[in-house]
Amino acid sequence: MLSSNPIKKSLNWLGRQLFNQENPAAFFDPLVTPINPLWIRGFTPAQVQDIITETADTKTFVLKPSNRWSGFEAGQHVNLSVDIDGVRYTRTFSLSSTPARWAEDGTITLTIKRLPGGLVTNWMHDNLKAGTVLGLSKAFGDFLVPTSVEPLLFIAGGSGITPILSLLETLEKDHYRAPVALLYFVRTQADVIGAERLYALRQRWPAFNLQVVHSQEDSKPVYLGEQHLDTIPGIKARLCYLCGPKGLMDLASDLLGKYGISDDRIRVTFFSAPAPVFTGESGGLVTFSRSGKEVEADDGKALLELAETAKLNPKYGCRMGICHQCKCTKTSGTVVNSLTGKVSSPGEEQIQLCISVPQGPVTIEL
Amino acid sequence: MIKLTNEQLDALAKDLDAIRDEALADLGERDAKYIRKILRLHRTLEVGGRVMMPFGFIPPVFVAAVASLGLAKILENMEIGHNVMHGQYDWMNDPALNSQTYEWDTVCTSDSWRRTHNYEHHTYTNIIGKDRDYGYAVLRLSDDQKWHPAHSLQFINYILLTVFFQWGVGLHELETEKLRSREIRLRDKLPLIKEFFQKGGRQAFKDYVFFPLLTLPVAPIVLLGNAGANLIRNLWASTVIFCGHFTEQAETFTEEECEGESKGHWYLRQISGSSNFTGGLWVHILSGHLSHQIEHHVFPDIPAHRYREMAPKVQAICEKYGITYNTGSFGRQYMTVLRKIAHYSLPDRVRLKLQAA
User: Fold this and answer.
1) Strand ranges (DSSP E) for chain B?
2) String of DSSP letters for A250-264
3) d(Cα A268, Cα A109) in Å, to the nearest integer?
4) Which of A166, A250, B186, B323 is 20–30 Å from B88 (CA)?
5) Other CB atoms within 10 A of residue B196 CB
């Protein structure tokens, strides 16, 4: 394989000269897409193989990524790109299956709950069919299995269970010796995601202590408290993993602190795509991610001016929304188009700095 | 340009914005399907042309190969490259159709094009002295520019410009007229010159070195065919573009009348300075819908295939305000362009006498 790299490099150089594209293989994408979409080179394709209903509002999507996909570790996430009415949306989801399964049959699963008002999750639930091809990013994230064997405590809420399912099955398969506990908060028994997998784990893995807490079953809601944590033997020595709604995570961090567990012993991962934070008012913290600069949004000021206030020199032209010279990637946050008054979606997309007014916190690649 | 009151200009802006908003709200699957269909057609024509070219020793195959490659270049430059770089498809969030990173199949670098065309030409359309696309600094097309004896030979300039159009566009930002007048120094343009040689070299390497050498025994045929395809594209692209702003009725403006202009005035100037031509579906597609130059200048970042359906609405608005909607057959519009180039090559005295006659 030593010689393949220079050959690959020179072919890539030649391709760039011939097709004027940074990724010359993608030149043929429009031709191969109708033949076999898994041959697409412009992004890493993954085909939907099966869709399994978990609960009333949660489904598991079984995907087969193309052979180019570089794999993942238990507990990691991927960015998934879907085309909805001509627009490509990219959202982050946790992988709910194990690397062992991917090694075995080449499939991965994403377990996704409908987000109220969420464009992408609802579209996936309602429209996605087996056979559809989606875009898949490299896996990322550091919500990983511990490097040394020690007692663990997982606290999950709702669909926050998804990366933990992958972690637990991986630990069991590796015959993890130390005790592992899971406190899983769901509204009712019907909302348990991955129930079969969790109960099967409890059956065959003696070190695993599973507690499912129904928070909304009775008239009085149940919150995480000492009555739950006190049941975990040797809790102070446990390495903790948290994944769930923000309220639960904040509460858990607080309580674990009271048990004397330091922050570096608590691993936290994001729970779901941030819900739209559109407040109807302009303003908020604008973060320019490449330069690391931050600026507080001024009422009604467009991002181009704000970037210049932060002593950045973004490319621009007409400053009136015509020429698109100032186009940049917004990685998160909501902006309003000052010409049309249209509110953007909260995810990653291209925006014109000169006519985009931030609404709440916004991150721009600048 | 017709004189409208400030209230009328504001109303005009509101009316045109309404058409724009309606189109923006409707963007979706249909536009994505359209541009991907054009991309597929472009790839088919390009691959087909390149594959057929070495068999060009058979005359009909040569014709088919040159036509196929020429059409591919036309589609890529006009319906894909030009329109994608205007940001018409940015809303799709597809990196392959991103206005700021797209690189097209012609000598001019996309960066230079985005500056000279998207920004300068579309912002300062037809303002003499600010829109360098007006006459491309080699043609005198208005009496706002003083006649010089060299202008009497400008028809030769025109022929050279149209034949070598992609190289002319590639060097457009060099601003040779300002270099000659010592307004700027060559040193300031060194990065541009470097990029010109890189991109121009890449284009020449592909068409005149790599593909001919790849099929060495028939290299002269491939070389000739590739040159033919480039020529077809140059002639067509320049002719379409000239019909967009240099027709008899297309107006020019002075810097003074556009100072601090309102959105409505900008709209009025875009309409008055542009001209359409009529034709069948494929004339529109192959012109990148610059056959709807008026709609393009009013809505530069709306997917161009929609100009066809937006045109009647724009025309109705023009009627409402008494604005000339400049359109005609391709042949008629082109004739007025040629006449204009010829007329303005003459000293004003002779030209006025001739035009009066």
Assistant:
1) none
2) HHHHHHHHHTT--GG
3) 21
4) B323
5) 21
The answer on A312 and A244 residing in a single domain is no
Residue B287, domain extent: 6-356
Residues of B in contact with A318 (CB under 8 A): 119, 122-123
CB contact under 8 A, A88 and B92: yes
Identify whether residues A260 and A307 lie together within a single domain. no
Q: Establish how many alpha carbons lie within 13 A of residue B253's alpha carbon, considering only the half-sphere containing its beta carbon.
A: 27
pLDDT tens, residue order, chain B (357 aa): 889 999 999 999 999 999 999 999 999 999 999 999 999 999 999 999 999 999 999 999 999 999 999 999 999 999 999 999 999 999 998 999 999 999 999 999 999 999 999 999 999 999 998 999 998 889 999 988 899 999 999 999 999 999 999 999 999 999 998 999 999 999 999 999 999 999 999 999 999 999 999 999 999 999 999 999 999 999 999 999 999 999 999 999 999 999 999 999 999 999 999 999 999 999 999 999 999 999 999 999 999 999 999 999 999 999 999 999 999 999 999 999 999 999 999 999 999 998 887
Residue type at B150? A
- List C-alpha distances in Å: A317 to B71, B227, B298: 32, 35, 17
Residue A183 lies in a domain: yes
DSSP secondary structure letter of residue B147: P
Scan residues 65-94 of B and list those with Cβ closer than 8 Å to A: 85-87, 90-94
In a domain, B1, yes or no: no
Q: In the block, which residue shows the tokens 């008002």?
A: A117
Using alpha carbons only, give the angle A353, A357, A363 rounded to the nearest 5 degrees: 70
- The whole-angstrom separation of Cα B95 and Cα A80 is 15
Q: CATH number, domain at A161?
A: 3.40.50.80
Domain hosting A309: range is 285-364
**Contact state of A18 with B91 under an 8 Å Cβ cutoff:** no
Which two structure tokens, joined as six digits, stand for A228?
């739950």
User: Residue A9: inside a domain, yes or no?
Assistant: yes
Rg (CA), chain B: 21
Tokens of A44: 């890493």
If one counts the domains in chain B, the total is: 1
CA-CA distance, B270 to B350, in Å (whole number)?
Answer: 31
- Asked whether B141 and B246 are in contact (CB, 8 A), the reply is yes
Angstrom CA distances, B46 to B67, B207, B334, stand at: 10, 12, 28
Residues in A touching B86 (Cβ below 8 Å): 324
The count of domains in chain A is 3
Q: A232 with A224: CB under 8 angstroms?
A: no
Q: Which of B136, B179, B160 is nearest to B145 (CA)?
A: B136
Determine contact: B104 vs chain A, CB below 8 A.
yes
* Nearest of A291, A292, A316, A296 to residue A306 by alpha carbon: A296
- Of A242, A248, A246, A241, give the one whose Cα is nearest residue A274: A246
Q: Characterize A204-224 residue by residue with b for buried, 16 or more Cβ atoms within 10 angstroms of its Cβ, and e for exposed.
A: ebeebbbebbbbeeeeeeeeb
Chain B residues closer than 8 Å to A18 by CB: 206, 210
B301 touches chain A (CB under 8 A): yes
DSSP A242: E
Could you write out the DSSP letters of every residue in B248-294?
TT---B-HHHHTT--HHHHHHHHHHT----B--HHHHHHTTTGGGHH
Residues of A with CB below 8 A from B94's CB? Answer: 88
Q: Is residue B97 part of a domain?
A: yes
Q: Does residue B215 form part of some domain?
A: yes
Interface ipTM? 0.92
SS3 A271: coil
